[in-house]
TrEMBL record:
Enzyme class: oxidoreductase
Protein name: D-lactate dehydrogenase (cytochrome)
PANTHER family documented for this protein: D-LACTATE DEHYDROGENASE, D-LACTATE DEHYDROGENASE, MITOCHONDRIAL-RELATED
Database matches in Pfam families: FAD-oxidase_C (PF02913)
EC number(s) from the headed UniProt entry: 1.1.2.4
SUPFAM superfamilies in the record: FAD-linked oxidases, C-terminal domain
Gene3D superfamilies: 3.30.70.2740, Vanillyl-alcohol Oxidase, Chain A, domain 4
GO molecular function: D-lactate dehydrogenase (cytochrome) activity; D-lactate dehydrogenase (NAD+) activity; flavin adenine dinucleotide binding
GO BP annotation list: lactate catabolic process
Cofactor: FAD
Keywords: FAD, Flavoprotein, Oxidoreductase
Length: 201
């Protein structure tokens, strides 16, 4: 089912509680939105209406891919303290625009976690691919410098191993490696992921 919302930065709220609490909180959110230059505040009360509203959020990844037909999405994410979230998103959006790449942003305002979908194609120039890596690198370092973490949901895997030491320091990584070796002495569980091999040697 198509969602016909304006193509503009959009913030979704979901309120829980008693009828009075929800009414008070939603009214205050609407007032804050208007005070800060927000657009029209739309409401959804019925379950069917809420489902349609949230469909836009759940389809964000596919909408991001549609911006560059044929491209693949390389999702990355970070998480920062709520007090630094707006600043981090604004700086990241400016970085993306200046770099000239296609990389929509969406996330979870409530916990400080946001995602960037780096749209890349096998037909992209090496320069373009390099720019996506550079934007991702700056995003992670920006989040860490703001007291955040290199990933909120997607995990460290292999792509963010090098950032863990920046975030936690060598002593913490050696401690993690000691636990890993105690539980998995043969290195059978997720080999080559999360912890740099030099700490496991």
């Amino acid at each position: 089912r198509a969602c016909r919302y304006p193509e503009t930065p959009t913030l979704f709220f979901e309120f829980h509680g008693s009828e009075q609490t929800v009414s008070e909180h939603s009214l205050r959110a609407s007032e804050l939105s208007q005070e800060n230059g927000g657009g029209e505040f739309k409401w959804a009360v019925l379950e069917e209406e809420r489902t349609v509203l949230w469909q836009a959020r759940h389809a964000a990844y596919y909408a991001a891919l549609a911006l560059r037909p044929g491209a693949r999405g390389w999702p990355t994410d970070v998480c920062v303290p709520i007090s630094r979230l707006a600043e981090c998103i604004e700086e990241t959006a400016a970085d993306i625009e200046q770099s000239g790449i296609v990389a929509p942003i969406f996330g979870h305002v409530g916990d400080g976690n946001f995602h960037v979908i780096l749209n890349v194609s096998e037909h992209d120039s090496e320069e373009y691919k390099q720019k996506t890596h550079q934007v991702n690198d700056r995003l992670i370092k920006r989040a860490i410098s703001m007291g955040g973490t290199c990933t909120g949901e997607h995990g460290v895997g292999t792509g963010k191993i090098s950032y863990l030491e920046q975030e936690h320091g060598e002593p913490a990584l050696r401690f993690m490696a000691a636990i890993k070796k105690a539980w998995d002495p043969k290195g059978l569980l997720n080999p080559g992921k999360i912890i740099d091999q030099r700490f496991l040697a």
